[in-house]
Amino acid sequence: MQTSATRPASGGIPLVLLCVGLLGNAQATSIADWESCSAISADAERLACYDRLAGRPQPAAVSSVEPHAAPTPVAAPAAPPEPKLLSALSRHWELDDEAKRGAFLFRPHHPNYFLPLKVSNSPNNTPFQATPAQAGIGLDSVETELQLSFKIKAMQGVFGYDNVDLWFGYTARSFWQAYNSSMSSPFRENNYEPEAMLVFRTHYDLAGFRGSFINLGLVHQSNGRGAALSRSWNRVYAQFGFERGNLALLLRPWYRIPAHDGDDNPDIDDYLGYGDLQAVYSKGRNTYSLLLRNNFRMSDNRGALKLNWNFPLYGRLRGYVQYFNGYGESLIDYNHSQQSLGLGVSLTGGM
Asked: For the chain, how long is the longest CA-to-CA vector?
């Protein structure tokens, strides 16, 4: 007779059989899964398969398609700075950094022009009549005039200062009796004027004008002749440049260096004075200039006035009109007063 301690419970056998079956099925499924994972060639997918079978939590799926990002706004390219408008004095003396062109280049100095027609109300025959070989000479009242003038910057930044430049200039004027066939159409006068200039760039205001530069110069002027027709003088000067808008003013007092080896024209200061004042005004493509000289004497007051008009003709060709009244239109005429009017063309500008 069996006791209750040794008799197996009737309900326990099915539970054991169920657990064994489930364990066997799980073992079979696990082996198949492991084998299927090992067959995956891609490393990332194979590792994910192993992690899944091992019961590790799977990372949230990351979409392979990135969200559409808003385009980064592209800044519009900065507009290039507008070129600096240079004044007439700045262009002429290269006062601003934008105007500088370096050394040893030819630039216009004084106006370059050719006047094929120039009429004088009083031709100066006196100097030629004083020469025996030319006694009785008669000048025509109509002649031509040519002026060529250039300058060269020899040194930019003298003494280590950026605002000081050294210039050399040369001007030649010729008065030609081109229509005087009775005299074989000679050049009655040639004037030569070399000079050296130290130009200091300045920035100050005076009576509404801007002081742009100070020019310290040494100049020689002569006509290259001898005997009674010789004329020459040497000067040192200081020229002050002012400007306001389209108007430029040039004030130039000078001192004549005394001649030690004879003086062909000791009284030249009495007629040409001790300085000059020049005004240059530009309007559109037209340029007007006025030159004044005076000896500043109450008695025997003498001086001169010169008016120029430079205007467009065709393309780069420009017209030139010149009016002169007073003493010293040329060196041979330093003590002779006359009025003249010339018509021609301008080759280049200048001051």
From this structure: 185
Residue 92 known to be catalytic: no
Composition of the chain by helix, strand, coil, percent to 5 = 20, 45, 35
Q: Mind listing the pLDDT tens digit for each residue in 66-90?
A: 555 666 777 667 766 666 678 999 9
156 touches 102 (CB < 8 A)? yes
pTM: 0.76
Q: Give pLDDT tens digits for 35-44.
A: 667 667 677 7
Maximum average pLDDT range among 17-21, 28-32, 215-219: 215-219
- Closest Cα to residue 128, out of 174, 178, 186, 171? 186
Sequential DSSP letters for 12-45: HHHHHHHHHHHHHHHHHHHHHHHHHHHT--SHHH
Q: Catalytic site residue 149?
A: no
In whole angstroms, give the CA distance from residue 221 to residue 227.
17
Nearest to 93 by CA among 255, 245, 211: 211
| Residue 160 confidence class, pLDDT cut points 50, 70, 90 | confident
Q: Catalytic: which of 141, 220, 230, 282?
A: 220
Catalytic one among 222, 230, 282, 337?
Answer: 222
